[in-house]
Amino acid sequence: MRGRINKGIGGFYYVAVDDEIIECKARGKFRKEHITPIIGDEVEIEVKNGKGAITKIYERKNSLIRPAVANIDVIVVVVASKDPDPATFVTDKMLVNAEINGIPSIVCINKSDLANTAELYDIYTCAGYKTVCVSALENNGLDELFEIIKGKTAAFAGVSGVGKSTILSRITGMELETGTVSDKISRGKHTTRHVELFKMRGGGYVLDTPGFSSVETEDISLQDLESCFPEILKHSSNCRFRGCAHIGEPDCAVKNAVLEGVIPQSRYESYKELYEIQKGKKIWK
Hints:
Elements: E1 2-9, E2 12-17, E3 20-26, H1 28-32, E4 42-48, E5 51-57, E6 63-64, E7 69-70, E8 74-80, H2 88-100, E9 105-110, H3 118-126, E10 130-133, H4 142-149, E11 153-157, H5 164-172, E12 198-199, E13 205-208, H6 222-225, H7 230-236, H8 253-259, H9 265-284
């Protein structure tokens, strides 16, 4: 039988085959080949005497390291308009991570009932990302989000407290565990204990991706970093110098676009910070 791993705990993998969930262990050959099944894997299983075994893992179209998930169609990066205040650098890191892994992403601005979302909306639509504004609390805008991700496997990312679990609960119809926002640090209490695929009504899956803000950029060159910022890449061909870093060079079309307000300042600051981080990594290699 062919199915998909939707959860893994303590060496057991829970494989969805049609409407049935079958508990499986991975065959020993995978350990010998240094292959570990991960959430989202399409697999072949055998069931004997009521016990399931994973016998084959089909080729992955993509995979993430943290968290370990595979075959993602779209990443939904969730940012709150308020409570906690928008963490644009972390949001931008998540978008860069999606670009590095070749996974399309959209931006979901939650808690539109608490603050005006126009500035955030403009920042990310300007960058070229499909952006939706929702209020999970008041159940506004979720139909639009649902239509975008319906039938797909959508990974949700965002810092604690932005409302991912509430959005997922609304979309799946399941009451997922949520945490309140700490007054002391204005961040949500971490509630996601493991990665799990949840089926959406009408088809498709959603999952939370704790830890996705930790960008794995070891294999990306400084020159390729600009390709992870669509609006910067768009203007880079007009720079005076080939291979312009858009940091200190004269006649830089990217810096001019920032001055003219065409590229949002927050996005440019994120690019510069990631450039310096990556530059430091290259020095120590």
